[in-house]
């Protein structure tokens, strides 16, 4: 990850609703987002922008828009994210680990 990236973008983000995995068949257009450190405080939203494939089990791709602190402007984190195991994971890193 880029050393000059804001600290907030290095947080681990989770959905603020109960969902472990977002697929082509089971996904939402928008999901509230929180950090693992403060799961009860919504800090932004995930917006679905597509899918990793065309099969029912393929994962939804999201862009994360988060507010790094109170009073701060919303920022869009670089990269694409998938929701798997209850955690938003960087799509490129997920692919490099032999998934997808």
Describe this structure in words.
The protein is mainly β and 100 residues long. The protein has one domain. The chain has one helix and seven strands. It has one helix spanning 91-96, and strands at residues 13-15, 30-35, 44-51, 60-66, 75-76, 81-84, 87-90. Strands 1, 2, 3, 4, 5, 6 and 7 form a seven-stranded antiparallel beta sheet that branches. β3 (44-51) and β4 form a beta hairpin.
Counted up, domains total 1
Quote the distance from N terminus to C terminus: 21 Å
How many beta-strand elements? 7
Q: Helices and strands, in N-to-C order?
A: EEEEEEEH
| Alpha-beta content class | mainly beta
- The proportion of residues forming helix, as a percent range, comes to under 10%
How large is the count of helical segments?
A: 1
Average pLDDT confidence is 87
How do the helices and strands line up, and which of them pair or pack?
Blueprint (H helix, E strand, L loop, with lengths): L12 E3 L14 E6 L8 E8 L8 E7 L8 E2 L4 E4 L2 E4 H6 L4
Antiparallel strand pairs: 1-2, 2-3, 3-4, 4-5, 4-6, 6-7
């Amino acid at each position: 990850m880029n050393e000059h990236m804001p600290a907030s973008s290095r947080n681990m983000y989770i959905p603020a609703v109960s969902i472990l995995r977002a697929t082509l068949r089971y996904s939402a257009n928008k999901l509230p987002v929180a950090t693992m450190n403060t799961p009860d405080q919504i800090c932004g939203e995930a917006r679905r922008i597509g899918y990793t494939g065309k099969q029912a089990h393929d994962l939804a791709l999201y862009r994360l828009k988060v507010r790094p602190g109170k009073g701060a402007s919303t920022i869009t984190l670089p990269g694409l994210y998938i929701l798997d195991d209850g955690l938003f994971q960087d799509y490129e890193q997920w692919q490099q680990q032999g998934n997808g």
